[in-house]
Design goal:
Length: 257
């Protein structure tokens, strides 16, 4: 982390978990633990149906509410979809875009990710853009090329005045839900690569201001080591974000020099 230049962000991705009643109890407990934290931004990316309730519970604390997906159009005949303007109207601040599960199970392409990034930025939301490689791609030695391409594709057409609003999350697909985790050095190496790619497009000043998270099975045990890396500016947390003690421990791990 480097707080001198950029914000540390710990974001929980609940995926398809927790009913509204379960979420309410969880968030009230979480608010008591980290609702006043000042050393990092804490975000909970909840299912669409939980957003209004989450906003009510968290309205008087520092925990921000995020969404897990967004449609690329403002409105129209897209049954079951939710627009960026709808999210903004509910008080959502962040939205995850291009998560590996969206790419794998729902066929989201780099081009579609880019359209969603523009939709989110135009509505005043902060996109958390996910990039990362599969185990086969890592073993083939194409991690750097793949991640660089994903970053460039996500940023296509994004102007200098808007790029600072984007957060990137490096999520090695082989480390999601598998119990495997990239070493701290591996995580930092790719986060550094992402920053270098941004630097080539927008310059050093903007690149060093962009928050880059690690999103591959960060947990209470490995968070401190991962967050100690110079280019790892936070975490996009999956399973550990569903347990108040674990998520609290990760937030507290961000409180280091």
């Amino acid at each position: 982390m480097n707080r001198r230049y950029r914000k540390t962000i710990i974001a929980g991705n609940w995926k398809m978990n927790k009913t509204a009643s379960e979420a309410k109890a969880f968030l009230e407990e979480l608010k008591a633990q980290v609702g006043r934290v000042k050393w990092c931004e804490v975000v909970v990316c909840v299912p669409f149906v939980n957003i209004p309730m989450a906003r009510r519970v968290l309205k008087d604390c520092r925990i921000a509410v995020g969404a897990q997906n967004v449609h690329h159009e403002q409105s129209g005949a897209y049954t079951g979809e939710v627009s960026a303007e709808m999210l903004k109207d509910l008080g959502v601040k962040y939205v995850i875009i291009g998560h590996s599960e969206r790419r794998q199970y729902f066929g989201e392409t780099d081009a579609l990710v880019n359209r969603k990034v523009h939709a989110a930025l135009n509505a005043g939301l902060r996109p958390i853009v996910c990039v990362g490689e599969s185990l086969e791609q890592r073993e083939a030695g194409i991690t750097n090329e793949l991640v660089t391409m994903q970053v460039k594709a996500a940023l296509a057409g994004v102007t200098v005045d808007k790029v600072r609003q984007i957060v990137f999350a490096y999520e090695p697909i082989w480390a999601i839900g598998t119990g495997k985790t990239a070493t701290a050095e591996q995580a930092n190496e790719i986060c550094e690569l992402i920053r270098a790619t941004i630097r080539k497009i927008y310059g050093a000043r903007i690149a060093r201001a962009i928050t880059i998270q690690y999103g591959g099975s960060m947990n209470a045990k490995n968070a401190f080591e991962l967050l100690a890396q110079p280019d790892v500016d936070g975490g996009l947390i999956g399973g550990a974000s569903l347990k108040v003690p674990d998520f609290t421990a990760i937030v507290n791990a961000a409180n280091q020099e």
